[in-house]
Amino acid sequence: MRATTPLRPVVRSSSSGVEVFDMSSSGKVWICTLLLSLTVLAGQGVIQPFPAQATPAPESLIKLEVVVNDRSGKPVSGLKQQDFTVMDDKLPQKTLSFEAVTGATADSGPVEVVLVADSVNISFMRVAYVRDQIKKFLRKDGGELARPVSITFLSDSGLSVPETPSRDANVLAGYLDQNPSSLRTITRSQGFYGADDRTQLSINALEQLTAYAAQRPGRKIVICVSPGWPLLSGVREEEGLTEKNRKAIFSTIVSLSTQLRQAGVTLYNVDPLGPTENQGREFYYESFLKGVHSPNQVALGDLALQVLAVQSGGRVLSSGNDVAEEIARCVQDANAYYVITFAPPVADGPNEYHALQVKIGQPHLKAQTTAGYYAQPAPKP
């Protein structure tokens, strides 16, 4: 059973779709169009279900980037291979390779930071604040960045092509100035229809960004400065979802989860709204962190940006008081981490979910890494 929450909406089916009553606001939202959109996107290939024949062969390795944090949340360096145990569905796995990464170089490839400024899911005034905070982060240490950084914008017209990565804060700040926020055509005041459009834009943008990251070497730290996507974090009830709905949502989860892992993306979410504007919802995503094993288990919240971030091995930061500092906290995870590979067991069927855990020999330390993956059966000869 998933944890209950006082913010839980009531969902019931109706003749025209799924009717959602948000008890916190007494507002009524229709999500049937969103569910239909996910089904259509999956069917048309915009959001691709992950086909068994397109997966790596079963003997291919699973690579984990593991950040080890102390009690204060700071990355810990200097650990050895014998300090780690990788558990796949609670079974220990043999480590085939191990690398301790510190500083700017790694045998496993470079580290690149991608900042995503979301101007779709927040107000126009808050977008200006986000842009100022990104500039503050860029100039935090005198303008010379430790890692190459690129910037991209999610707007009503979709995701912009990320700026060429640079370690020069002045170059990146100039790029921000040359690309002002455009006027909004999809607004929060448009109710459900605006929420549906914004959700589709957001999901498509993440897939486009992952495709971009897959073409670049090494590890990618993708930091989305966003409150998350509409509807997905606020609806947890399973009632009213048809079998077709469930399969479409599950296919989307499998696809995004697999693409993020294979592209070397660790996803982070920095919420610029803060507790006051979120009205207590900033931790609601925690009800959905357990991995989804099959279509009959899905809820819309399983597809939340925050959930995808945690399951990719990233963080969710939501104080909203100092976005620049929270971005810096995300980036510091690249200062010290460990790369571990192991051979996954052969799956019995397609899209078989495997929960991952990395145990550390020192109890005061905590590992932060990919929460799970979808395994595939051996290809037929």
Descriptive overview:
The protein starts with 9 loop residues before the first strand and ends in a 6-residue tail after the last strand. The strands form four sheets. Strands 8, 9, 10, 11, 12, 13 and 14 form a seven-stranded mixed beta sheet that branches. The chain has helices spanning 32-44, 124-138, 169-178, 191-214, 243-262, 274-278, 305-311, 323-331, and strands at 10-14, 17-22, 27-30, 62-69, 84-88, 91-93, 97-102, 111-118, 144-155, 158-159, 166-168, 219-225, 265-270, 316-317, 336-342, 352-360, 366-368, 372-375. It is built from eight helices and 18 strands. It has a domain at 111-331: von Willebrand factor, type A domain (Rossmann fold, 3-Layer(aba) Sandwich), CATH 3.40.50.410. It is globular, with a radius of gyration of 20 Å. With 381 residues, the chain is of the alpha+beta class.
Text of the CATH class of the domain at 111-331: Alpha Beta
* CATH architecture type of the domain at 111-331: 3-Layer(aba) Sandwich
Shape: globular
CATH topology of the domain at 111-331: Rossmann fold
Figure out the total of helices. 8
- CATH homology superfamily of the domain at 111-331: von Willebrand factor, type A domain
What is the number of strand segments?
A: 18
Alpha-carbon distance between the two ends: 40 Å
Helix fraction, binned, reads 25-40%
In N-to-C order, the SSE pattern is EEEHEEEEEHEEEHHEHEHHEHEEEE
- Class per helix and strand makeup: alpha+beta
The low-confidence runs, each spanning 5 or more residues with pLDDT under 50, are 1-30, 45-59, 186-193
Give the amount of beta strand, in percent: 25-35%
How does the major sheet shape up?
7 strands, mixed
Q: What is the rounded Rg?
A: 20 Å
Mean pLDDT: 80
